[in-house]
Amino acid sequence: MYTKGKSDITVSVCDSDGVTVEIREVLDSFGVSHSIGKEIGRGGQGLVCHTQNPEIVVKFALGANATLIDRVKNKAEFKKANDEFKSIIYKPFPERIHIAYPMARLADYAGYVMRFMDDMIPYSDIVPLDESGIKRMAEDGGYRRRFELLFKLAAEMSKLHGAGMVYCDLSPRNVYVTADPKGLTQNVWLIDADNIFIPGEDPDKLVYTARYAAPELLNGSPCSQASDVYSFAVLAFESLAALHPFAGEKAMNGGECNWDETEPADVAKDNFEVDPQYSGKIPWVEDVEDISNHTKDGLPRQFFLTDETFDLFNKTFSECGRESSKTRPTAMLWARALAHSYMQCVRCPDCNMSFVYDSQEKCPWCDENLPQVLILKDEAGRKVFAHELVFSDQGYGEEFFLHEHIVALFKIDSFFSKLIKIRTMNENGLGIEFRLVQENCTAREFAIAVNGAEEKILSAYILQPKKDEAYSLKCYDKETGFSRVLAIEVVGRA
Ligand SMILES: [Zn+2]
Asked: Furthest-apart CA pair in the chain: how many Å?
């Protein structure tokens, strides 16, 4: 509940006369007043502040030269913005989608009130654009956290696209993520719902951040779901490779652009001359047909790419993907591929960096020997899961989870629900505990088979791996009759 308190915090912003206005409190269209809290972010289009309610934030839309739009002083502009917010409020957003969209309009300024979560940071904070950003990956969750945030972002995009909507201006500054890298729940929220639209309702809708924009937008074509997924792919590649997907040799030596910029460009189309290298007219840094823009810059691709994610990047950034937006992979395919990457990610306890596991014995980052790794393989012998096993001196060690999509068909609403908690234990010898997350397992049965002899998991099963024994995890879906058998292996030195 909102409780009115005395706040000393104000936000200062220039009005259209060039006068600085200090705002301490705002009234919304329902007559509720909100005390202004700390500023979260400010860009060309708007200024977002916390309020005293930790779940509510206020956005002021800004006019020309980033000035406040006042109901009385700027009548026409205010009405235009206000009408747009009304139309966003009535859009058919899917339930529980993580997009901060308007709940109420501001009464005296162009802007609105929206629900948002506390303790979030922009994704741009964890896009490693220099050496220090890469070093921070050891502390900020590395690839494992990035895969999780990216598959969740792709899932939100997929839900939005499934409802027939387009986000428009996807960039690392418009994505907010849980600030604490160790937080048990990593949330992803999209801000800036102003530009969300339904194709057809506004045939000229065109808003973008040049660095992340699909090539057709730069030629004046309107935003589309296909341009959204292109932006997603740039954002994903850049944050995993520490390199923009087109910042290769050809771009560097072309002398036409400045790739050293550390801030993503955040510019409207009117006042920005687009760099030719963002145009989609040069090959990407991993192009399979034209190597002219290949580069050794950025992080080694094998640390984070799987065959599946490489295929999606290539379908998006190849000449065909750049020129024919319809051939680009959908957000759902991205969610699935990155969820697979997450499930195959191993972290090195020595340097704390993570990577996609490919049967390495040594950490590719620091060259230290890796600990044992738990692996699950599907019926065709393909690795679907890998996680390091870190044992504590006594009792339980690290815990991690098997997600639904490992044993079931991929569903965008539930694929990352946690079905089984796995943890190492050191008690009368080393063991691996498989514990059902009961509330998510009501429709499924699980069993562990040792040399073919099955034992149903009622609540937990402790596996103490021995040589010459074969193990598997069986999952049976009571509703669909779908079942899976995954071979369990523990590899590496004990
Ligand atoms: Zn290492």
From this structure: 81
Identify the domain boundary among 293, 323, 338: 338
Residue 163's pLDDT is 95
Query: Are residues 461 and 426 in contact, defined by beta-carbon separation less than 8 angstroms?
Result: no
Helix 331-343 / helix 142-162 crossing angle, nearest 10 deg: 160
Give residue 242 CA to ligand 1 midpoint distance, Å: 18
Distance from Cα 219 to the centre of ligand 1, integer Å: 45
Q: Which residues of the chain have pLDDT under 70?
A: 1-7, 254-274, 276, 494
Give the model's pLDDT for residue 1: 37
Residue 48 belongs to a domain: yes
Q: What CATH number is given to the structural domain containing 61?
A: 3.30.200
Closest CA to 123 of 260, 259, 235, 228: 235
Cα–Cα nearest to 416, from 121, 154, 238, 214: 154
Examine the domain organization and report whether 198 and 90 are in the same domain: no
Give tens-digit pLDDT for 86-143: 888 888 899 889 998 888 999 999 999 998 887 899 999 999 999 999 999 999 999 9
Is residue 207, in this structure, part of any structural domain at all? yes
φ and ψ of 295, to 5 deg:
-155, 155
Q: Is residue 365 part of a domain?
A: no
What CATH number corresponds to the domain at position 304? 1.10.510.10
Among 157, 161, 174, residue whose Cα is nearest residue 45: 174
Contact criterion met (CB below 8 Å) for 335 and 229: no
Backbone angles phi, psi at 316, to 5 degrees: -85, -40
Q: What's the mean per-residue pLDDT of the chain? A: 91
Q: What does DSSP say about strands 102-105 and 111-115: parallel, antiparallel, or unpaired?
A: antiparallel
106 and 146 belong to one structural domain: no
Distance 355 CA to ligand 1 centre (A): 9
Q: For ligand 1, a single-atom ion, which residues have Cβ within 5 Å?
A: 348, 350-351, 363, 365-366
Q: What is the dihedral of CA 388, 392, 394, 395, to 10 degrees?
A: -60
Distance of CA 354 from the midpoint of ligand 1 (Å): 8
Sorted by sequence, the CB contacts under 8 Å of residue 134 that are 6+ apart come out as: 128, 242, 299
Q: What is the pLDDT of residue 254?
A: 65
Give distance in angstroms: CA of 191 to centre of ligand 1: 35
pLDDT of residue 4: 45
- CA of 149 from ligand 1 middle (Å) equals 22
Tell me 208's DSSP state.
Answer: -
Domain range for 289 is 120-338
Q: Are 233 and 318 within one domain?
A: yes
Q: pLDDT for 263-280, tens place per residue?
A: 344 444 444 556 767 888
Q: What is the pLDDT of residue 6?
A: 53
Domain count, the chain: 3
* In a domain? residue 344: no
Query: Are both 485 and 422 inside the same structural domain?
Result: yes
